[in-house]
Design a protein that fits this description.
Shape: globular
CATH topology of the largest domain: Jelly Rolls
Number of domains: 3
Helix content: 25-40%
Oligomer: single chain
Number of helices: 8
């Protein structure tokens, strides 16, 4: 990385970029998943350092070094941040919970090259036509007719722009499909931003009906909803309805899990789940709809939505949940040799663009389990 880019990254974090410099930095990151990830993680790590939060076992040393040198030039400061990024975020860290309070082991650092970009995201029109959304689709108009424009910008973000339909007509849905190992971003015509996770589908009407904005989700997505009090925003997911006016929230609704989790980052949402069950969430709360129950619990929102920044992050999560995520991202099948292994708790984080073999090596080096691997079949065994 040359000095110019380091300077731009530092100015970006300080909010001092000119319009021309913003364009230059965007151009630098464009087309490279590794650079885009570095940019996102740099900004996040800087926030961690400035708040003094210890997200990883080795972060304290980086924070103290930053604090000692915080008055130096931007170039010196960015070297400190990137050093922490390389040592913590890029390599990952793990802590195993062995069921005994206060006892944990730190993982060895495992370096890995980033795999090639994912392929297979596609957009299915209401009439059944499909359009692939590879990196080559940047700066492309996919459709422009009947008051609707669908385009992909230079950052590979889809923009879905259409006029509201005042008539009471049959609603036709287009569909964004993200396969295992992918994710995708889009912006709706009202300005709402959506991040769609691996193994997920988002259905969007050709036109929002008068008085409401409604989408349907299978899988997981993070929403930043543009406020419009005259048109509430609805997400329908596996029998659960989420109503918002303007907010940031995450919905995980993978059918095979048998539950729907709605996590509120900002604003206010109402979650409804059959038979009149309804809860209103506050920021930092998660509603879990499972079987005939609708429960609310406190969560760390940053952990839940870490996937939108290209990371897996878990805090005292059972191994069963950890490998559910691995199956969706890496396209592998995981089984446990003993039922008890599913309940071992794990805390840690790693960049999800690293290959699955590195995740397994890290887990095996630090935990009480090992693995047998045959093709895409992974068996978790007791050491």
């Amino acid at each position: 990385m040359d000095d110019k880019i380091e300077e731009l990254l530092s100015k970006k974090a300080d909010g001092e970029l000119t319009l021309e410099e913003e364009r230059e930095l965007t151009e630098w990151a464009r087309g490279s998943r590794e650079r885009e990830c570095l940019l996102r993680e740099y900004l996040r790590v800087r926030r961690w350092l400035e708040s003094g939060r210890n997200y990883a076992p080795d972060a304290e040393k980086g924070f103290l070094a930053w604090r000692r040198h915080r008055r130096r030039s931007r170039i010196v400061r960015i070297v400190r941040y990137v050093a922490v990024f390389v040592g913590v975020a890029a390599c990952g860290w793990v802590v195993w919970e062995h069921g005994r309070s206060g006892e944990a082991e730190k993982a060895e650092v495992v370096y890995a090259e980033l795999p090639k970009e994912d392929e297979g995201v596609f957009f299915e029109w209401a009439d059944g036509r499909k359009t692939g959304l590879s990196g080559e689709m940047r700066d492309s108009v996919l459709a422009e007719r009947d008051g609707m424009t669908v385009r992909v910008d230079g950052s590979n973000v889809m923009h879905y722009e259409s006029e509201a339909d005042e008539a009471d007509t049959v609603v036709r849905y287009n569909r964004l499909v993200v396969p295992v190992g992918g994710d995708y971003r889009m912006v709706l015509g009202d300005g709402t931003k959506v991040w769609v996770n691996s193994a997920s589908e988002l259905e969007i009407p050709e036109r929002f009906q008068a008085g409401e904005r409604r989408v349907r989700l299978r899988g997981e997505a993070y929403f930043e909803v543009a406020r419009d009090t005259a048109r509430p925003f609805w997400v329908e997911a596996e029998g659960v309805s989420v109503q918002v006016l303007g907010t940031r929230f995450n919905v995980a609704a993978y059918g095979e899990d048998g539950r729907v989790e709605t996590t509120l980052a900002e604003g206010k949402v109402a979650v409804s789940s059959g038979e009149g069950r309804r809860v209103v969430l506050k920021p930092g709360e998660q509603a879990v709809a499972e079987d005939d129950r609708l429960d609310v619990r406190d969560v760390n929102v940053e952990d839940v939505i870490s996937w939108i920044d290209g990371r897996f992050f878990f805090k005292q999560a059972p191994l069963e949940e950890v490998f559910e995520q691995a199956e969706r991202w890496y396209g592998v099948s995981v089984r446990f040799e003993e039922e008890s292994l599913k309940h071992i708790r794990f805390s840690g984080g790693v960049l999800k663009f690293n290959p699955v073999s590195d995740l397994l090596k890290m887990v095996e080096a630090t935990g009480p389990v090992g693995f047998r691997v045959s093709g895409k079949e992974i068996t978790v065994v007791k050491k």
